[in-house]
Design brief:
10 helices, five-stranded parallel beta sheet, alpha/beta, about 10% strand
Length: about 210
């Protein structure tokens, strides 16, 4: 099974873009943790491809959909996107509003299903916590939860898999502090990456 991860810096996690195999190609985030578990259990059963790009918004995923997604012909697609659609608006007035986010996300789903009719798709919930990158405009960053509702709605509408993550981050941050899981309120620490991987693998176990 070929699994492709599509998203922003949370997925990217400093991956090596010069290779599609080997440890560095997975980055140092949740994709690497997932790859380690799957490839340990079934060394010849999976091909794992990381196509996260730091700073990406939904429009950026759509712009590179053919090269980075369709041309790879994966069997399983995992998408995590959303926080930059707000963050870019706050920082640069170049975000993606909610209606456009939904419209373009819908296009990604529909066109991918048309190109790859047998593909399975998992949509991951975007998330945010209070931290160094979010504290000055935290109320704005909390709009991520509205984008998350869109992601869940699309998963339900198209019969896709949905991975909730915000509640888990809230739960663990209340116990041990937000920075233990999202070191700046957006990007996962080692523990945060493990949290995503744990939730992803538990759902994948039900799917495969």
């Amino acid at each position: 099974m070929k699994i492709l991860f599509f998203g922003d810096s949370i997925t990217d996690a400093n991956r090596d873009r010069e290779t599609d195999c080997g440890l560095r190609s997975y980055g140092v985030g949740f994709v690497r943790t997932i790859a380690g578990k799957l490839l340990f259990d079934e060394p010849t059963g999976y091909t794992i491809i990381n196509r996260g790009v730091s700073g990406n918004r939904i429009v950026d995923l759509y712009a590179r959909i053919k090269k980075d997604l369709w041309n790879e012909t994966p069997d399983f697609l995992s998408i995590l996107i959303g926080v930059n659609d707000i963050w870019h608006e706050i920082a640069h007035q170049n975000g993606v509003d909610l209606a456009r986010f939904e419209r373009i996300y819908r296009s990604i789903i529909e066109e991918t299903q048309e190109r790859l009719p047998n593909i399975k798709i998992l949509l991951c919930e975007p998330f945010v916590l209070l931290g160094a990158a979010t504290q000055d405009a935290y109320e704005r960053f909390l709009e991520v939860k509205e984008y998350a509702k869109i992601v869940k709605k699309l998963a339900e509408e198209y019969g896709l898999y949905f991975l909730p993550l915000q509640d888990k981050f809230d739960e663990y941050s209340e116990k041990y502090g937000a920075t233990q899981y999202l070191f700046d309120g957006v990007h996962p620490s080692v523990a945060g990456a493990q949290l995503i991987a744990n939730e992803w693998l538990a759902l994948f176990e039900e799917i495969k």
